Amino acid sequence: MYKTGILNSEISKVLSDLGHTDTIIIADCGLPIPDGVKKIDLALTFGHPSFEEVFNLVKAHMKIEQLTIANEMIKQNSALYVKLLAENYVKLLAENIDMVTESHEKLKMYSKDVKAIIKTGEATPYANAILSSGVLF
Questions:
Q1: Is 104 a catalytic residue?
Q2: What residue ranges in the chain does DSSP mark as E strands?
Q3: CA atoms lying within 13 Å on the CB side of residue 124
Q4: Can you give the pLDDT at residue 27?
Q5: Given the residues 20, 48, 61, 104, the one annotated as active site
Q6: Are 51 and 121 in contact (CB under 8 A)?
């Protein structure tokens, strides 16, 4: 049995297969999943697991080069933005993770080209992030 890391075999496989600049999305329970994109549905109930729980776990196991969120998160889900991103800004910079904002519509357009979308139980608006894979060397 897998001793450490992510026990969800689908997430573990997706992370293992990522190459430099490949992308995944961690999504709230309302983000539409485009046809043909791998969906890993973790949602159990509203709020569980939360975006924050899944983001922190994936971040611990993935070299992230760029984090893209919707502009709308800043004002329309400021609690998540402040808790997750603004409070951790120094840590993200220390890990060389660039933060980018785009419109929610563009984020949905980009979702067609990701390797997978990990759907959480998060039930707050614009709780979605595109994670672009970095390289370890």
A1: no
A2: 23-27, 38-41, 64-70, 98-102, 116-119, 129-133
A3: 17
A4: 98
A5: 20
A6: no
DSSP single-letter state for residue 83: I
Q: At 73, give phi and psi (nearest 5°).
A: -60, -35
Q: How confident is the model at residue 3, as a pLDDT?
A: 65
List of residues 6+ apart from 114 with CB closer than 8 A: 23, 24, 25, 37, 130
CB 100 within 8 A of CB 51: no
Dihedral sign, Cα of residue 44, residue 48, residue 54, residue 55:
positive
Residues of the chain with pLDDT under 70: 1-3, 86
Can you tell me which residue has the tokens 């595109």? 130
Strand-pairing partners, residue 102, are 70
